[in-house]
Amino acid sequence: MTREHLENHIFRILRFLGMAFFILMVAFPFYWMVVSSIKPLEEIFSNPGNLGLDLRGISFDAYREVLFEHGFITYISNSVYVSFITVLFSVTLATLGGYAVTRLRFGGQKLMSTSILLVYMFPAIVLVIPLYVIFSRLGLRDSIHVLILVYLAQTLPVALYMLRTYFQTLPSEMEDAGLIDGCSRFGVILRIVIPLSSPALASVALYTFMIAWNEFLFAFMFLDSPEKFTLTRGLVQLEGSVHLSKQLVMAASVMVTLPILILFLVFERRLVGGLTAGAMKG
After folding, report:
1. What is the domain-level CATH number for residue 240?
2. Most buried residue, 13, 129, 170, 260, by most Cβ within 10 Å?
């Protein structure tokens, strides 16, 4: 075996070990969370360090209790509503705005195009106090619709940037042909731009959904009424109940994590394709 082949072999082994290590680091907390949520409660108390799972002793009582006795059905419906409305408005506005700064000519276009991501210079913790004061004085604080507005402001800049970069890769000749054939500008967007941009639109929608589903800070600061809690806010409320077992907290954590995990695994290729599309030109 030559020295070059030996070095390549060592490199492949190290790469495999590195990947295995990081996969283990990521997967272990989720495994521990799932196992702790379906083990019988007496087994957790008697041997908390046991990470094994007896399939004959699996119990879903913690999930039933979390869903039907602690209001998590309401929290799930609130999170679904907030996330889908945020996705709808974010994708719609980002499509129109991204197309405008890419194709249309107007005063301040260059400044707007280059300053889209300026809002990301300010961490969420810096913005939450002023927003808390403003919405409190306006009497709008305890509202999931205000939460949607905040999430929209949080996700729209990146969505605009992603779609603008993708729209720059689309040939303008196809849009010109549509305009010559009698399409309005909105018709061109609807019939030509959107079908060609489905990978980027899917990645923007998935990104926005993940942000809205997982966000905690604004939900914690703005929501007070339990019937308006999202999943992350309800999870903290449940965790703060010291008389409850940690098994319930683990079951609730699985409910928060599993939908995002499934969405990411299902749409991983489309997400990566949308994020990298236009990289050569953008």
Report:
1. 1.10.3720.10
2. 170
